[in-house]
Amino acid sequence: MTDTVSRRSSLRLLGAAIAVATAASGGLTPPSRAHAQGKPGAGAAPRVEALIAKLTLDEKISLLHGATDPATLGQAGYVPGVKRLGIPPLRLADGPAGVRVTQHATALPAPVLLASAFDPALARRYGQVIGREGRALGQDVLLSPMVNLIRTPYAGRNFETFSEDPLLSSDLVAAEIEGIQGEGLIATVKHFAMNNQEKDRTTVDVRVDEQTMHETELRPFEAAVQAGTGAVMGAYNKVNGTYACENKALLTDILRTRWGFDGWVMTDWRAAHSTAKALTAGLDMEMPGDVYFGKALKKAAQNRTVPELHIDQAVRRILTVMDRFGLLDGRAPTRPGRNAKAGAAVALEVAKAGATLLHNERGTLPLTAGDIAVIGPTGELPFVSGGGSAHVVPDRADSPLDAIRVRAGRAAKVTYALGEDLYGRPLPASALSPGFKSEGQGVGAGKTWTYDGELTVSDTDEWTFVIHYSGAADLRPKVLVDGKELFPVKPGYGEWFSGGLIYTAPDQLSVRRTTLRLTKGKHTLKITARGGDTGQLFRLRHTTGAIRTQNVAEAVRAARAARHVVLFAYEDATEGQDRTTIALPGHQDELIDAVTAANPRTTVVLNTSSATSMPWLTRTGAVLQMYYPGQEGAAATAAVLFGDCDPGGRLTQTFPVDDDHHPVARDAARYPGVGGREEYTEGIHLGYRWYEAEGVPPLFPFGHGLSYTSFSYEDLSVRPAGHGLDVTFTVRNTGRRAGVAVPQVYVGKSPDLQLDQAVRVLGAYRRLSLLRGEQRRVTVHVAARTLSSWDPNRHAWALGTGLRVVWVGASARDLRLRGLGEVRG
Ligand code: BGC
């Protein structure tokens, strides 16, 4: 929390020293790999120039786009390299919560859970795990971290990124990149920029003013550059009329000229739109194929629409980073083996550190003696990670139910009730005429299987049909009930939804659902299933309103019979789609209503991606936000529930009360856009800044999170320190047990600036573990950058001098101390 920018640059210059120091402090980085994140070694430029001089035009172009990997590791991207000159291939793997290849890897908690710990040192260790695993799993480049700020609660990737606050996201991205690159893996900060939603992500034109862009979304990208990120991934969307991947203002004027980025820019997958325009705007690499940077680029070079100098420049940027990581001259250390144990330990630690206790009344948590009813599908099946490119094949994952049983020991009975059915029940054989193997119908390779029969429905009801199938999306069995196709294949990104819990059955078959009302009597059922190249297996299942009523009744019975209830609620997010409401999906709100009415000592554990509305909040005993907790989520959740550790997380995004009270509510131009354009008219008032500016009370504010103990904040002193402020205060553990405090410093407006300013912004924070009765005097630095506004008239930062109010608190709205500090120019 010293001046972020200068701290980053000095760390970067220290290069080797950082990694050595990290190793000494128990990190995963052995000193021998220390050179990897450093600056180019002596002779780097001549080596790169010598290679460029020897490369043919075809060879140069082959370095500027993706190709098919002859190996089958399953990563997202591949660049073949040039063997004759000793340029090795590059393998590029997702992603933000662990290394995404076909093999198993450590499935870390979602980045939003990491961020909730408010702990850059932990982010560095998270990065180290991915860095080492990436290299161990044959990768060279990691397509992570994602730093797009959380602007709308609906955005499908809010779990993959950190926060709505530029300072917190900047600190975390810098630390994580240092962790990744210290292990010798090249990091790729993404998605540059203004990729704050999934709805229409490939087409939407984000209209945003200069001040907003610099004060919000761009800050963590700049921090990533300062931390030495090797690569940047351009976004799908347009920014102020031009696609991000061919946007000169972003890729050259800001990224390179203003920030001094010396690595390479690649597209997001299939996000290139042009050849000459993109290359001259500053794009270096098209991924994952060669639509624009393959033959088209060669032609443009030959007919001189693109000077070869531009091609050389792109090649130079890629090779310079490769050289910096020792990939061109054999300096790169040999690939390490995986250290799955160390990865799992970090996964567990992060999940515990980020666990955010939102609500805890009547001493509901930690759990004490007494029988426990566990309810909800994700109470039994571990909800490890979100869908899309952030999904990792986990080494392992336990059931939360088992973890709770183990922790409760013999003294307490732990029962389980499903509550809400995700995967459906088998169709009753008596309902099908003729019968077929609806619980496992196989179709041979190259074969087509058809069914033409009848389904008899005993009572008019709402039916949810659920199909589980093993083939690719285009092989999804075609099922028609009364002539209506139940699971049509959606074109394009409509089929991205995979990997998450809802779209994948426990045995890994893909799952789709459709609900319709069926009247009592007979209905036609027609199915066509193709075996494709390898054959496939499918199941057709169902739930009905009547089954749902039975499930809820069973949950209520279990809740009544137990002393405590732990109800796991889910929401499954993925890239490629946004949510349409912040309410929990399905009938979970009704389930929670019924269960809390039966037993108010109910804790709701949320395995959700982002903010959720909680109409039932006051009827619950406790609410624990675990997001997608990774492969060790079950043990971490049990540890927090039983109080083996303090819930150390704080919200990194504001939770609105409902769909009508948040920054992008009721304004389609603001979100999701009108006629392809989206206006960021909330300006700099992103996240909590908007709630303060508009006087809208949130459900839970930014920075909120309860501990099992209590803290007092005392003795504030604020002193000028350079162009920033040093803020000193005392935090005392006033409760009866050890716990984690996350004091936050917020700073008010400058009287000297004529620019729009937020009511208050996060200036610094500190995560503290305090024993019972312990107190700590803390000094944090509020950096000049955080005290500055972007002046669009001068196209530069303007320091917000003068007397500024400084608050210290436990959230953006729980402000305990107030003082004044003078910012000096
Ligand atoms: C995502 C990227 C990801 C890429 C490769 C894209 O759809 O937006 O974040 O890195 O796919 O998997």
Account of the protein in words:
The chain has 825 residues and is α/β, with parallel strands linked by helices. Among the domains are: 297 residues, Glycoside hydrolase, family 3, N-terminal domain (TIM Barrel, Alpha-Beta Barrel); 122 residues, Jelly Rolls; 113 residues, Immunoglobulins (Immunoglobulin-like), CATH 2.60.40.10. The protein is built from 20 helices and 37 strands. A six-stranded mixed beta sheet has the order 1-2-3-4-6-9. A six-stranded mixed beta sheet has the order 10-25-24-23-11-12, sandwiched between helices. Strand 7 and strand 8 form a beta hairpin. The protein is globular. The protein binds beta-D-glucopyranose. The site of beta-D-glucopyranose has 9 residues, from loops.
Distance between the termini: 20 Å
- What's the CATH class label of the domain at 44-340? Alpha Beta
User: How much beta, percentage-wise?
Assistant: 15-25%
- Identify the CATH homologous superfamily of the domain at 44-340: Glycoside hydrolase, family 3, N-terminal domain
**Ligand inventory:** beta-D-glucopyranose
Shape: globular
Q: Structural class, from helix and strand content?
A: alpha/beta
Strand ordering within the main sheet: 1-2-3-4-6-9
Radius of gyration: 27 Å
Rounded average pLDDT: 93
CATH architecture of the domain at 44-340: Alpha-Beta Barrel
Are there runs of 5+ residues with pLDDT below 50, and where?
Answer: 1-43
Q: What is the β-strand count? A: 37
Look up the CATH topology of the domain at 44-340: TIM Barrel
Helix content: 10-25%
Largest sheet: 6 strands, mixed
Helix segment tally: 20
